[in-house]
């Protein structure tokens, strides 16, 4: 795999996050706030989720991010967390943890840019305890054929400008193929970038 290092995108993402809308903050709080026990967060990015963990529910967070440019911002935000957060530079496809180590896994707006998403979901399944849950917030392929076609056209540009972001991925199909089962799903908006909030468990 090629190394992941997008310093310009990381800087722009960090700048835009400071102007982020209340709807995005509320979605992050909803998804991350459901985490409990020993938590794995993949694609931690600039650490926007760290302040959302509930110290009455979470023991600690192992936060993984492959891009050193993103990690630079995440180290600062770790200080805002009310729970212990340990940072690791690693890809979701190759995670340095033992089988069945975590009660919760969190991924928010991550799998659009993962190089091998099926392999990444398989790793999360490996690391979740039998009673554990994956908490996912992701934009997915549009249900409308016209919108999906437009996503296909725009994805090469998005990959180049936004850290390998794919607008057109059937992420929930990939998740199911990795041995995870969706137990709750909430669709948030539609159009060109439909979002879903999902809780999934091991099959």
Write up this protein.
This protein is of the alpha/beta class and 203 residues long. The protein has a single domain (7-202), classed as 3-Layer(aba) Sandwich (Rossmann fold). The chain contains six helices and seven strands; from the N terminus they run H-H-E-E-H-E-E-H-E-H-H-E-E. The protein has helices at residues 7-17, 22-32, 68-77, 117-127, 145-161, 171-177; strands at residues 37-42, 58-64, 85-88, 102-108, 128-139, 180-188, 195-202. It has a seven-stranded mixed β-sheet with strand order 3-2-1-4-5-7-6, with helices on both faces. Helix 1 (7-17) runs parallel beside helix 3 (68-77) and helix 4 packs across helix 6 (171-177). The protein is globular and about 45 Å long. The relative contact order is 0.15.
């Amino acid at each position: 795999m090629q190394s992941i290092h997008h310093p310009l995108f990381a800087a722009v993402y960090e700048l835009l996050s400071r102007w982020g809308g209340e709807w995005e903050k509320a979605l992050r709080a909803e998804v991350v706030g459901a985490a409990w026990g020993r938590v794995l967060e993949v694609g931690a990015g600039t650490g926007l989720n760290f302040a959302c963990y509930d110290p009455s529910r979470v023991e600690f967070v192992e936060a993984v991010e492959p891009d050193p440019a993103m990690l630079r911002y995440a180290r600062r935000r770790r200080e805002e967390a009310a729970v212990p957060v340990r940072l690791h530079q690693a890809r979701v496809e190759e995670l340095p943890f033992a089988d069945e180590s975590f009660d919760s896994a969190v991924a928010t707006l991550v799998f659009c840019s993962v190089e091998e998403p099926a392999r990444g979901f398989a790793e999360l399944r490996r690391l979740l305890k039998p009673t554990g849950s994956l908490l996912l917030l992701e934009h997915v392929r549009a249900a409308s054929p016209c919108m999906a076609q437009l996503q296909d056209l725009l994805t090469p540009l998005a990959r180049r400008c936004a850290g390998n972001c794919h607008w057109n991925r059937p992420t929930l199909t990939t998740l199911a193929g990795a041995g995870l089962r969706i137990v709750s799903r909430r669709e948030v908006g539609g159009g060109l970038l439909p979002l879903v909030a999902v809780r999934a468990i091991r099959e």
